[in-house]
């Protein structure tokens, strides 16, 4: 079974050639509200991140995979497994699909592949995600992939327009 290859996409390790696209996505301040980023990343910092991505995921407690189209080898997004806890056999999942490729099923396929990899190969017991309550597309994506809403963090994320609620989604294998 290939955990990292689907019908239209495959997941692959991050490469030095991904520096420019990673720089673009990580420094898009409109996306920062979905994660924990508070300031831009330098190319130097991202280059070091890429160089260190070869370390064991149980040491770094994270894994970033680039989402790549099979037909063209174009990188269209990334999916992260982070806060990996080997003792409790769980990890958090985050996904980003470039705007031009959203609502085409690629996020669904990437999330399916990451779940299969996390459960089938890494033998994690559960995955979870923190999703802004107003992010209906992401809530739908995770729901359609077996994640259930199991909590709400009220006023969890501070934005320039006030505080936002975050839904906790969880999938148990």
TrEMBL record:
Coiled-coil region: none
GO molecular function: acyltransferase activity, transferring groups other than amino-acyl groups
Entry-linked Pfam families: Acetyltransf_3 (PF13302)
Signal peptide range: none
Domain of life (superkingdom): Bacteria
Positions of the N-acetyltransferase domain: 9-173
Key words, A-Z: Transferase
InterPro entries recorded: Acyl_CoA_acyltransferase, GNAT_dom
Name by which UniProt lists this protein: Diamine N-acetyltransferase
The organism of origin for this protein: Coprobacter fastidiosus NSB1 = JCM 33896
């Amino acid at each position: 079974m290939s955990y990292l290859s689907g019908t239209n996409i495959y997941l692959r390790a991050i490469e030095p050639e991904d520096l420019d696209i990673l720089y673009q996505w990580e420094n898009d301040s409109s996306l920062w509200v979905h994660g924990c980023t508070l300031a831009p990343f330098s190319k130097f910092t991202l280059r070091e991140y890429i160089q260190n991505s070869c370390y064991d995921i149980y040491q770094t407690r994270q894994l970033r995979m680039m989402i790549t189209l099979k037909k063209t080898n174009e990188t269209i997004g990334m999916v992260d497994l982070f806060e990996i806890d080997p003792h409790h056999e769980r990890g958090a999942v985050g996904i980003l699909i470039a705007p031009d490729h959203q609502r085409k099923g690629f996020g669904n396929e990437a999330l399916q592949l990451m779940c299969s990899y996390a459960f089938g190969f890494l033998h994690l017991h559960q995955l979870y995600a923190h999703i802004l309550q107003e992010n209906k597309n992401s809530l739908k994506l995770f729901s359609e992939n077996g994640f259930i809403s199991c909590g709400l963090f009220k006023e969890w994320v501070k934005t320039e327009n006030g505080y936002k609620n975050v839904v906790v989604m969880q999938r148990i294998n």
